[in-house]
Amino acid sequence: MIEIKDLHKSYRMGSNSLHVLKGLNLSIKEGELVAIMGSSGSGKSTFLNILGMLDEADSGQYVLDSVPIKDLNETKAAKYRNKFLGFIFQSFNLINYKTAIENVSLPLYYQKVNRKERQEKALQYLEKVGLKQWADHLPSELSGGQKQRVAIARALAAEPKVLLADELTGALDSKTSYEIMELIQEINDEGKTILVVTHEPDIANMCKRIVHLKDGVIVEDTFVEQVRASEYVQ
C-alpha cells in the first residue's frame, strides 16, 4: 500500500541546510495499523507531511497504492489527497460555523457528490462513530471526544485508502483517548490502513506495529502484540 525508498528531505535555514530525513525506507501493507513515534525534531512531522502530500521529498521514492507520488502541482496533489488520504488532526480542524453533518460531508462536496447523497453518506458515517443524534450540532456544542469522532467520520466519508492520524488523542484525556482508539481499532479491523503519529507509548501499543524515528532515520521497526483499547474502556 505504501512504499518508501531512500527518502531524503532538507530545508534551507538561511545560508545553512538542515537535513531532516536521511534515507528513510518503509513498507506498509494494506490493512496495517502503524504507530510512528519519535521525539520532537526526529523528522516525524516532515515524514507525515510528505506522506500526506503537503510537502515533497528532495529524493527517493514514495509509491501509494501503486501510484508514484512525485512532481505534484497543487491541483494534482489536492486530487490525490482527496482520492487516497483521510486526515485526522490533534486540533480536530472542524469548521466552527458548520454542523457536524456539514463538516463530515465536506470531502464529498469536493468529490462533486450531489447534495442528497452527501447528506445520506455523512449521516451514515456519523452513525458509525456513534454521533448520529448530534448531526445538527455545531462543534462548540460538542465535547473534545465528540469533535474527534466527527473528524474521524469526515476522514472516512471520502472512503480513502489510508488514514493519517497526527496526535489524534493529544488534546484528549486518557478515558476519551482510549475510546477514540477503540474506534480506530474497529475501523482497522474492517481493513483500513491507518498510520498514527503519537508520542504516547500506551497509544502506540494499541497499534500493531511501532516505527521509531530518530534524527531522520528509522532506528526501530517492531510488530507488537496489540493492546485492545476496549480493555480500558468501561
From TrEMBL:
CDD domains: ABC_MJ0796_LolCDE_FtsE. Transmembrane segments: none annotated. Keywords: ATP-binding, Nucleotide-binding, Translocase, Transport. It holds the Pfam family ABC_tran. Signal peptide: none annotated. PROSITE patterns: ABC_TRANSPORTER_1, ABC_TRANSPORTER_2. One of its GO terms (cellular component) is membrane protein complex. GO terms for molecular function: ATP binding; ATP hydrolysis activity; transmembrane transporter activity. The keyword Transport applies. Residues 2-233 form the ABC transporter domain. Belongs to the ABC transporter superfamily. Macrolide exporter (TC 3.A.1.122) family. This is ABC transporter ATP-binding protein.
